Amino acid sequence: MATQSGKTTGTLDAIIIGAGFSGLYQLICLRDRLGLNVQVLETGSAVGGTWYWNRYPGARCDVESYAYCYTFSPELTEEWEWSERYPDDAELRRYLDFVADRFDLKRNIQFNTRVTSAWYDEAANTWTVKTEAGESFTAKYLIAAVGCLSTANVPRIAGLESFAGHWYHTGEWPHDGVDFTGKRVGMIGTGSTGIQAAPVIAETASHLTVFQRTANYSIPARNAALSEEYKRFYKERAPEIRKTTRETPNGYPFKPNPKSALEVTPEEREAAYEEAWARGGMQFRATFRDIVLHKEANETAAAFIRHKIAQVVKDPKKAAILLDIDHAYGAKRPPIDNGYFECFNRDNVSLVDIKAAPIERIISSGIRTADAEYPLDIIVFATGFDAMTGPLLRMDIRGRDGLRLADAWEAGPTTYLGLQVAGFPNLFTMTGPGSPSVLCVMPVAIEQHGEWIASCIDYMRKNDIARIEAKPEAAEKWVEHVNEAANETLLVTAKHSWYLGANIPGKPRVFMPYAGGMPRYRQKCDEVAAAGYEGFVLSR
Known about the structure:
CATH topology of the largest domain: FAD/NAD(P)-binding domain
CATH class of the largest domain: Alpha Beta
Strand content: 15-25%
Distance between the termini: 27 Å
Helix content: 25-40%
């Protein structure tokens, strides 16, 4: 079997699909710590994962740089230096490239390799992975590190093929960029991506028309360059930051205020929100402990944000559309922004409410809604992803007796701990459905997953165990627990959330990520391992 480096190998110990944060760390865990023969297969031409593909205008992480990074190596923390509070896509790619070079990872990565299928051979106890180019790789263990947000969702709008201009999806952005100078641009979508992209596009476009179906909350990011003093500060506090990220439910480097929003005076509450608004970022959610848990507490935060939006947006008609928010604050992924609401004060930015007048079709000259036509040169789809399950289901994955993953998940994804699927021995899913994943700072979840999977494989090797497979009943109980945890929050009240798969027509409405918090999840995973991998079938 030939690899990109020209080496020929027989059966590998492990194949990792994906070279983003997850795949790189899993390679370190398996190759460097366990000494396994590992091959990483990556669709892109470089490391980066989600950040390889997301290069749209304004693309930026919504977690502070000093927390959105690996923590396993004190040397790496000391050697790398972040430039901004919130790193942009280019800086994140530079960081991951630095990591790949620092730990000599690229020699085990084959780039420009799209995996099309992965089939399990029960007699041989191996996985055979095939690529678009016709290559075949075989290994005992298969780790899907394909990310949660890597399958672009291009909506099926009639007439797209007739559009005479150019169209782009933010998740598949051209590497050489797009020139909006003098162009009439239409952007569909106002989730996190659209909120980041709109202000940047508006700077050069002759006109930007934003098509909004669902109004959204957003908090100012207050992004800024990091001072030399602050860079030293976060490096000195790295062990403390790491400890905090492992103790907080969402993996953030700050702890929520232990007080309820309802147990303080209105004046104290207003002052707390004003301070959080001025500070900016995701920490706004931590102003009080019960903002995402109880409706009445949540409304105090939501009302504050709506008031701020009304203050910023000068046009009453635009403000009314932007304030028509149908969900609790934080029930959908809460964006942070760099001038999103302010951009609607520009003369060259229009806002169209497509909930009131839906898009009927795309025509050669632009977009037609129920009540108007909008001439456009460029259409930008900021419509997100087929999240969590999409990256896995776009491959033909088959387990025991030819069971297709698509069939196993026909009614929605069922996993045990978000790590394994019944009927698919020795297949591990990193940050899969049923794990905290998108409800957590991703590198925090990724390091826990990578270490748990490596420990599991190490246990199997030391105890002469050939295969591990989740028990169906354990997976069913875990899905029940995932739903119970979600129902303890306001997350399930947002009916149009991609957490539920609601952005994909025909996708089962199942709450996918684990909302019980990273510490609770970590404890459960540790208990399962300590009990000899309870809930799994281990076979010699």
